[in-house]
Amino acid sequence: MTTDSVKIGFIGFGNMGQAIADGFLYKEALGPSQMGACAQDYEKLKKNTQARGMHSFADSRQTVEWADVVVLAVKPWMVGAVLEPVKDMLEGKILWSVAAGVMFDDFEKMLPPGIHHISAIPSTPAAVGEGIFTCEKKHSLTGDEHAFFCSMLSRIGLVAEVETAKVNIANTISGCGPAFASMFAEALGDAGVMYGLTRSQAYELAAGMLAGTGKLMLGQGRHPGQMKDDVCSPGGTTIRGVAALEKAGLRSAVIGAVQAAMGKYEE
């Protein structure tokens, strides 16, 4: 299996499926003819796949028959029902689940013995090759399959392998984080507009700042506290802003947001 020849079939082609496909296309990691999908709304599916030059399939069995890697991109509560008609066709293929909260042991109960499967949940920035894939360490891929799989994903993002018990918190930070970060960017944009910037200028500055800060932290392995300190001159403007954020409870608000999101897994 190589990136030049592999065929990726999506069962379900909503936001997550489209983000993954767009990332492969954006980074030119895969060609459009190497990807295909099926979904409940076939007319909508055709519009989304044809716009990308991908294949569209009438049902999941056609998708699985064609694909080498089957991406299960459906809501967690749908997994069992969606697998039922295709589980006898998965031998010799890689089943990749992006369904949050459905782990290795769950799939072992739903699948016939010997099926090679892995859970790797993406974040939406995968669409521009900057995603985070929370991969459950426990999987049933061979060594070669796992190496290929991680190499393929690394073309469009950061691959973070975590123990099963930590998948949910890792996915909350990387998967819910874009929404939290977007709210912060929007707030910065509002402040910029208040002081005379156009909305587009303010959002461009906020987005560029977030992208650059993240790359600096990853690229240099910097501690976020040190990066904050580096910008805070004694008696300067930034430390005044930091003090205001501390007074407003930014840290506790973010931690509270993560706790609220994690509560969904505990219901």
Folded structure, characterized:
Keywords: Amino-acid biosynthesis, Cytoplasm, NADP, Oxidoreductase, Proline biosynthesis. InterPro entries: 6-PGluconate_DH-like_C_sf (IPR008927), NAD(P)-bd_dom_sf (IPR036291), P5C_Rdtase_cat_N (IPR028939), P5CR_dimer (IPR029036), Pyrroline-COOH_reductase (IPR000304). Its EC number is 1.5.1.2. It is found in: Cytoplasm. Pathway: Amino-acid biosynthesis; L-proline biosynthesis; L-proline from L-glutamate 5-semialdehyde: step 1/1. It is a single chain. This protein is an alpha/beta fold. It has two domains: about 10-160, 3-Layer(aba) Sandwich (Rossmann fold); about 170-265, ProC C-terminal domain-like fold. The protein is built from eleven helices and eight strands. The protein has helices spanning about 15-25, 40-50, 60-65, 80-85, 105-110, 145-155, 165-195, 200-220, 225-230, 235-250, 250-265, and strands at about 10, 35-40, 55, 70, 95, 115-120, 130-135, 155-160. It has an eight-stranded mixed sheet, with helices on both faces. Strand 7 (about 130-135), helix 6 and strand 8 (about 155-160) form a beta-alpha-beta unit. Helix 7 (about 165-195) runs antiparallel to helix 8 and helix 7 (about 165-195) packs antiparallel against helix 11. The longest helix is centred in the last third of the chain and has 28 residues, at about 165-195. The model has no long low-confidence stretch (mean pLDDT about 95).
